[in-house]
# Entry
Amino acid sequence: MPNPKSGTVTMDVTKAIADIKSGKVEYRLDKTNIIHLGFGKVSFGTDKLLENYTTVMDAIIKAKPVAAKGQYIRSVSITTTMGPGLFVDQK
# Structure
């Protein structure tokens, strides 16, 4: 369902479309502190997917709260929408 907090409900549709086309991606944690987000499509190719992945990881690391102590990212799992996952260890 659309959610105003995630930016999917807006009165300024033109701005929302421009933001999405420019590559704006919002993410948040679920109840178990897991981030779910898309960072590309298979048609993007390996180089673009890697660039998007690196950008997303940099943004997540940059958003780390100052008060957060210890290991911030334990693991990363990448999967297609309807396919098996690929586990990427982030140590």
